[in-house]
Amino acid sequence: MNGLILKTEGLMKVLAKTSSFLLAVCLVAAAQSSPEVHLNADGLAPRPIEELTGTTIVHHYAQAWSHMAEALESSRADRIGDEFVGQAKDRLKQRIVEQAKTGVHVRIVDHGHQLKAIFYSTDGSAMQLVDQAQLEIQTFDGNKLLDTENAPRKYIVLMTPGADRWYVRDLEEISEGAF
Amino acid sequence: MAAELHVPATVKAGQAFSIHLTGSGNATLYLIGPDHVVKRSVASANDVEIASGDLRTAGRYRVIICDGSCSSASFEVKSAEPAQLSFFLHPSRVPVSSRDSIDAFVFVFDRYSNLVLVPSVVDFQIKPASGSPLSHQSPTRNGVAWMRIDSTAHEGRVQVTAALGKVEEARVIQQVAAEPCALHIKAVERGGKVALETDPVRDCGGNPLPDGTVVSFTKTDKSGRSTVDTPIRKGVAKTEFRMDGPAKISVACGVALGNEVELGGKL
Amino acid sequence: MKWLLVFVITAATVILLAIAWLQSGGLKQRATSSAVTPEAAVQALMNKIQAHDYQQAYSLLDSNSGTDLQSFVRDVGGSDGSLRTYSALQSADVSPLHADSDQAMVRVRMTWSSAVGSLDDVRDLKVLRNGSVWRVVWPKPEFPSVPPQVLPVNYLRWEVIGRNASQNWGAQEVDSPKVRITSMNAISRPGRVVIVGEIENEDTIPAYLNVNATLLKANGSTIDEEGSFDMISHVLLPKQISPYRIDFPGIRLDAVKSVRMDARALLVPASADPVIAVTDQQVAKDALSRNILKGDLVNQSGRLVNIAQVLAAFYDDSGKVIWVSDGYVDQSLTPQVPVPFAIDIPNDIAERLKNYRVIVNHYTRSSV
Asked: Is the CB of residue C121 less than 8 Å from the CB of residue C52?
C-alpha cells in the first residue's frame, strides 16, 4: 500500500510538474498574444482617420492591454511596456508598486475590445476613444483568490502619436451611463 | 460569514466617505483603484473611513472585505471640478488669410488630472495684433472642446485664450506672410558689375516676407549661368554680378517667379 | 650556443625586413625614384605625396619649379581645414601626353580618398630631363589673398528655445517647419533605382530636413527603404529649394509598383550667412572628356568656409528633374575669391538635359 501511495505521489508529482509546465506554456502564449481589438471610426471629427493610423492604433492598443495584464499579474512595473506614456504610465506604475507592497495582484482574462474613435484632432496629435471591453478580472492576495468579476467595462482612452507608435496617455474606466 | 458591504455608486474625486459594514469580528479590507491598492484590517461591525487621498483618480474602484470568506462591491470615482486645461493651438505659424487654418482644442481636467466628462462650455478669445478681437464658444464633449477659425489678413502675433470658469490658458501663434507676389528686381550697371535689388518683397495682401527668406537671382550670359541664393535683409534682397557682355537676369522666391531684365543688348 | 641564437635572431629579422620591403613595393619605389622616364618621375613624386613625405616629394622637383616648399605643401596637402586636409592620396594614374628627348608633358589623375568619397584632381605636369634623371616642374600655385578689410555681416540668425522637458502635455509648442516635396521622379540606372526630385521649405523659419523613400511591391510590401544621406541640402532657409537623390542599389525599376516618400523637417538654429554665389556655370567636357557642370563658387561673406559641396538638379525639356549630382570642393572658400568646382554628368543625362539648378552646402569650422 505504501508503495502504491508512493507511486501515486510520484505520478501526482509528474502530473503536477507537467501541468505547471503546460500552465507556464499557456501563460507565455497568453503573455505573447494580444487581445482582439476592433476599431470603429465612423463619423469621427474634426478629422477622419487614415487607414494606416487605424491599423497602428489597433495594434498598439492591443499591445498596451497585453502588457498591462502581464504587469498587473506579475506586479512588475518593468512589464508595463512602451505603449503607456505620461499620466497613464504613472498611474499604472503606482498601482503596481502598491500591489507589490500589499501582495495583491490581479489576473485579467481579456475577451476583446470594441473601440470607437470619438475625437481626432485636426493636426493629428491626439485621439480620444471609447473602449467597450469584455474582461474577466480575478483578484488575488498571494495565491488566495479574493474576487472574480466578469462584466462588460467601458473606458475612455486618450492616445497620442510618437515617432513609431501611438501611446496610451490616459485610460479611465467610466460607468455605462457616462455618455 | 463575510461582512456585507454598502458603498455609494459614485464618489467625487478627492472626497472621503465611509463604507458601512455589517458583520462581526475582524476582517481584511482591500480597496483596489486605478492607481492605488489598500489592504488593512478592520472591525467588521464598524464603518470604515476611506480617506480623500485614496480617491484621487477617477475610475472604477473595487472594495473587497474578507473574514474567512469574501464579499465585494464596486463604486465609481468621478472627476472633480475643472482645474486645468490642456490647450493645443495649431499651427504655431500660419499664412495670412487662410480659411480654416487655425485649430484649437482643449482637454479639460480636474485638479487630480482626471478628464472632466461633465459637459461645459469653453470660451476662446482671439486677439490679433491688429483688428478687433474675436470670441468663440465651444461646448465640451467627453471632456474635449475644439474650434477652427480662419487666419486674418495681417501678419503678426495672435493670442488665443481658452477659458472655463476661472481656469485660463493662453497661447500665441504667428500669422506670417503668404507666398510672394509681384516679385520685381531693379538692375544698376556700374564698373563692370551689375547691382541687383528687389522691391520690398511682399505677399498679395501687402504683408512683407520675413527677413531671412531666400531669393534666387540668376544671370545668364555667354560665360554661362550664375546663381546666388540670398536672404532678404530689411525687406529687400540684394546681390551683385560681374558683367561680361549682354546678360539676362531673373529672380525667384520659392516657386514664385519675378520679372526678367536684359542688360547690355541682345544675348 | 648563446652567440648562435643571437645570429639566428638577427638573420631572421633581416630576412623578414627584406620580405616586408619587397612586399610594400620597395623595389618599385626604388625604381621609380631613380626616374629614368618622365612617367617614373611623376610616379615617384606621387609615391612621396601618398606617403605624406612632402619634403622628399619637394626634393624630387626640378629646380625650375617656381614653388617653395610651404606653397607646395599647401597646394598638395590643403590648408584652412579644407576637405583636402582630411584626404589621403589613394592612387595616381600617370599617362604621357607627349615627350621629346629633354622634356615631356605627363597627365596625372590623382584620386584622393576622403570621408565623403573619392575626389579626382587631374593635372598636366611638365617633366624635364636633368642629366640621366627626369624631374617634375611643379608650377607655383597661386593663392589669392584678400586685402585686409572689414566686412559688415548682418544676416539673420535663428535660435530655438525648446520646450522644457518638465512641462506637461498640452504646453505651448513650436511647430516643426513646413516643407513640401515639389517633385519626385523614379528612374532606372544601371544596377539600381534612383529617386530624384526637389523639396522646398515653405515656412518662414529654417528647416533641417531628411527625405526618405520606400519602394513598394504591387502587394504593398516593402522592397527597400533608403534616405537621401548627403545628396540633399539638409539645412534649408525659408523658401529655399534643394534637390535630393536617393539610391537603391541592386533593385530593378520594373519590380517597383509605387514609392512612398517621407520628408521630415526639424526646427534647428541656423544662420543666413554665408551667402555663396555660384558663378559662370557651364556644361562642358573635362580633360578626360567627361561631361561636367563647372563653375566657380564665391564666398560672399567675410568668414572662411572650410568645406563646400555643390548639388545640382538637371531638368529635361518638360521641366522634370532627371538627375541630381553632387561634387565636393577640396579647397576652402576664402571670402570673395572664386574657387572652381566640377560635377560629373552621366552621358545619357547630358544628352537630355535642358536646364539645371545649383545650390551649395557648406561646413564652417567654428574655431576658424
From this structure: no
Task: Please give the Cα distance from C277 to C275 (Å, whole number).
Answer: 6
Give exposure, A45-78, as e/b (b: 16+ Cβ within 10 Å): eeeebeeebbebbbebbbbbbbbbbbbbbbbebe
Please name the amino acid found at residue B49: E
pLDDT tens by residue, A4-44: 333 333 333 433 333 333 333 333 333 447 899 999 999 99
DSSP letter (8 states) at residue C52: T
- C211's grid cell: 527625405
Look at residues C124, C109, C125 and name the one whose alpha carbon lies nearest to residue C64: C125
Number of H helices, E strands in chain B: 0, 25
CB contact at 8 A, C361 and C237: no
CB neighbour list of residue C313: distance below 8 Å, 6 or more residues apart: C196, C198, C243, C321, C323, C324, C356, C357
- In chain C, the percentage of residues whose pLDDT exceeds 70 is 89
Lookup result for grid cell 531638368: C315
**Residue C208 and residue C228 in contact, taking contact as beta carbons nearer than 8 Å:** no
pLDDT under 70 in chain B at which residues?
Answer: 1-3, 267
Distance of residue A175 Cα from the nearest chain B Cα, in angstroms? 7
Amino acid identity, position C94: V
Q: Which residues of B touch C156 (CB under 8 A)?
A: 211-212, 231, 233
| Neighbouring residues of A87: CB distance < 8 A, sequence distance ≥ 6 | A169, A170, B113
Cβ contact (<8 Å) for B30 and A99? no
Asked if B213 and C237 count as a contact pair (C-beta separation under 8 A), the reply is yes
C239, C241, C294, C301: which to substitute to probe chain B, counting the most B Cβ within 10 Å? C239
CA atoms within 13 A on the CB side of C147: 0
Nearest-CA distance B180 → chain A (Å): 26
Task: Tell me which residue has cell 489598500.
Answer: B38
Q: How far apart are CA C258 and CA C341, in angstroms?
A: 36
Report how far residue C213's alpha carbon sits from residue C195's, in angstroms, rounded to the nearest whole number: 8
- Give residue-wise pLDDT tens across range C136-192: 999 988 887 888 888 777 778 898 887 766 667 777 778 889 999 999 999 999 999
Closest to A174 (Cα-Cα) out of B79, B141, B60: B60
Name the DSSP class of A82: S
Q: Mark yes or no for CB contact B87/C278 under 8 Å.
A: no
Written as nine digits, the cell of B212 is 531671412
Angle at C98 between CA C93 and CA C103, to 5 degrees: 100
